[in-house]
Structure to design on (511 residues):
């Protein structure tokens, strides 16, 4: 499946797409377009090309010229200079704010025919979207549920790989159109802070907007935690949000309540007693076998028995339950559907070698967990969640991404040292940076450096951890989760934490 963004049989009047917008320039009054794109390399004859400035610089003239050469019927830009210098180019002020709505018009407003759940927050987006989408498939007895986000884009069970948490404004509408055409009734999507800041979902109608939590991340882009928080809050300012589900225990909860006020139904959830929480468990048990919790919602009892582990996965389950309740599902049915959802790849994922079936005790192997934790808060929560599951040493293998927020590196080093018994620092998508430079920044937060093992080769670091661990130990491999690549020097090389860990477990064999 691919986004539906070009259809030679469907010619839409350009005037219809731009109705109500302040557009300057001269084009034929009856011009029709048969597609849309923001990428000049993907322009097809008859397309409308949206020339949006990139983060790395404004190359509007260059890309507009290429688009026209490829047969674009028209180009829309927010650069007055470009519009004045090139024939066939129209000027639209604040184009980035309008791009999603223009694409929605071209695609015939696909979100109006779908029930869409949008999930934002620093941590938990992928797990919550997976939980909601999979539960919906069970509740509606159909696999026609769409999922958009880090885990991939498309119909549940047939996802296409994704390089962005939230795709471009035009691509979002194209994916929604494709999912509508494929018969989907529900779509669950992650909504990143970048997407909100860049108005990529401005033209999407959300049945439920959900918030998981806010902690430090992406400050290389947003500049400050306050700006990052404001971007997240933008989801609840969108004009077409019907209901709100939020973490009542998060410091941002009060601002969310102020934003939504009485405009829409809302559910605030929390694991503990929080005054504003309307959804919380009356019983909660967490161990290495999973999570069991139960409670009451509007006099209806519910219970979730899940194979997921850790406190933050209990939070993710509660967030997913809140979303399903706001979609109109009964509490008992929604909880039962969530209980049937298996663990999410790369989210506190328990591994086993082929010699020992998944979920069984080998009597010799350590417990090996792969998790996507790549921020200070996520790493801290993962280690805290796993400590009760570990009767021996807690080993942490992690690194930090290159060309990203460098300020979090020493913070993650300090957290790993404080909460793990053994720390192995390695590489994690170094991109254009030298791995040694990133590792040095991590070590700056560690006081007892001599106790830390350093192995820049991630595969070797994983093997080192697995081979040195004893029965009863727990090895956390953090940072990459579901990713099947390592970004080095501008290239994505095949790499899987799961594969490396299983190979090490196979080679090790029983003790």
């Amino acid at each position: 499946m691919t986004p539906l963004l070009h259809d030679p049989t469907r010619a839409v009047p350009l005037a219809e797409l731009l109705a109500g917008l302040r557009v300057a320039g001269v084009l034929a009054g009856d011009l029709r377009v048969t597609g849309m794109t923001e990428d000049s390399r993907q322009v097809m004859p008859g397309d409308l090309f949206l020339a949006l400035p990139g983060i790395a610089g404004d190359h509007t003239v260059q890309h507009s010229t290429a688009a026209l050469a490829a047969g674009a019927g028209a180009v829309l830009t927010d650069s007055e200079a470009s519009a004045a210098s090139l024939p066939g180019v129209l000027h639209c002020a604040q184009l980035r704010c309008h791009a999603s709505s223009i694409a929605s018009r071209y695609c015939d407003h696909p979100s109006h025919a779908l029930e869409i759940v949008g999930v934002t927050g620093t941590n938990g987006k992928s797990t919550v979207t997976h939980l909601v989408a999979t539960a919906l498939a069970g509740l509606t007895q159909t696999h026609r549920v769409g999922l958009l986000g880090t885990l991939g884009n498309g119909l549940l069970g047939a996802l296409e790989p994704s390089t962005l948490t939230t795709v471009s404004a035009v691509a979002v509408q194209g994916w929604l159109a494709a999912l509508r055409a494929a018969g989907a009734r529900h779509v669950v999507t992650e909504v990143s802070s970048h997407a909100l800041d860049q108005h990529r979902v401005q033209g999407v109608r959300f049945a439920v907007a959900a918030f998981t939590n806010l902690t430090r991340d992406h400050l290389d882009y947003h500049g400050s935690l306050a700006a990052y928080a404001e971007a997240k809050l933008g989801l609840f300012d969108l004009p077409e949000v019907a209901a709100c589900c939020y973490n009542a225990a998060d410091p941002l909860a009060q601002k969310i309540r102020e934003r939504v006020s009485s405009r829409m139904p809302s559910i605030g959830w929390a694991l503990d007693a929080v005054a504003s929480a309307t959804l919380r468990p009356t019983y909660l048990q967490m161990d290495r076998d999973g999570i069991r919790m139960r409670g009451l919602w509007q006099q209806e009892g519910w219970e979730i028995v899940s194979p997921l582990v850790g406190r933050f996965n209990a939070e993710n389950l509660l967030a997913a339950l809140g979303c399903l309740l706001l979609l109109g599902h009964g509490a008992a049915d929604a909880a039962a559907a969530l209980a049937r959802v298996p663990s999410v790849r790369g989210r506190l994922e328990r591994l086993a070698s082929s010699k020992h079936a998944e979920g069984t005790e080998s009597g010799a192997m350590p417990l090996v967990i792969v998790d996507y934790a790549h921020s200070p808060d996520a790493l801290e929560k993962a280690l805290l969640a796993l400590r009760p599951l570990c009767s021996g040493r807690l080993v942490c293998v992690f690194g930090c991404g290159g060309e990203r927020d460098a300020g979090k590196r020493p913070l993650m080093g300090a957290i790993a040292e404080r909460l793990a018994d053994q720390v192995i620092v390695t590489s994690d998508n170094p991109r254009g940076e030298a791995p040694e430079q990133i590792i040095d920044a991590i070590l700056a937060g560690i006081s007892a450096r001599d106790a830390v093992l350093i192995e820049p080769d991630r595969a070797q670091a994983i093997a080192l951890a697995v081979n040195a661990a004893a029965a009863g130990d727990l090895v956390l491999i953090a940072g990459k989760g579901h990713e099947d690549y390592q970004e080095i020097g501008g290239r994505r090389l095949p790499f899987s934490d799961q594969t490396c860990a299983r190979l090490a477990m196979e080679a090790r064999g029983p003790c």
Q: What stands out?
A: The longest helix spans residues 311-326.
